[in-house]
Amino acid sequence: MFARSGSTWTQQAFLKPTNTDADDQFGSSIALDGTTLMIGSCGEASEAQGVDGDAFDNSGFLNGAGFSFEIEPGPWTDIGSALAGASGDPLLLGSGTLAAGSANGLDLSNAAPSSFTGVFASLASSPIDFKGGVLAAFPFALLKFVTTNVGGELALPFGMPTGVPAGTQLWVQTAIQDAGAVSGVALSNALKGVTP
Predict the structure, then answer these.
(1) pLDDT number for residue 116
(2) Element (H, E) at 142
């Protein structure tokens, strides 16, 4: 499992089955539905324990197996509402736990290079029409102006203050100056974060 910060991907965790043998081919198929992840292991051929607790023999040639994992959802949800610019939809990602005192970050990619960018942050969402798109982080409590780098990326680290009540919502979205966008402004997707 990986997380992206700017253009860099870093491993956060890994998944493996309860019984591992050579040539199991764990990961030969993968399916995700909500927070349930199923991973196939078409070469798995060992004795295993069924859901009812009974042992069964799976030692036939390439019988295979499936493994189920529950993925814990993070505090960030992609709400959508991007408005394309010359490079397509700008992508905003949130990282960190949003716990009191934690280090967090916002990473913008696929935006116009070296462009004036407004970062909108709000504690609620009353979406409004904005430059041909929808601004979900409204009414905004914080508006910061920054500039994307030559690759159309932006990294904004921030620390979560102490004393913020659990369940507090943080809505964030960016507006990027972009001559290839409707009305000259592209919008990233909106993010909703919830403090634990």
Answers:
(1) 97
(2) strand 142-147
pLDDT number for residue 78 = 92
DSSP SS3 for 9: strand
Of 22, 54, 70, the domain-final residue: 70
- My answer on whether 142 and 51 are in the same domain is no
Number of separate domains in the chain: 2
What is d(CA 114, CA 142) in angstroms, rounded to the nearest whole number?
22
Same domain for 110 and 26, yes or no, is no
Low pLDDT (below 70) residues in the chain: 1, 3-13, 46-62
The verdict on 106 and 28 lying in the same domain is no
Q: What is the pLDDT of residue 151?
A: 95
The residue range of the domain holding 130 is 76-194
Structure confidence at residue 34 (pLDDT): 74
End of a domain among 70, 86, 104? 70
Exposure string of 88-120, with b = 16+ CB inside 10 Å and e = fewer, is ebbbbbbbbebeeeeebbbbbbbbbeebebbbb
pLDDT at 16: 76
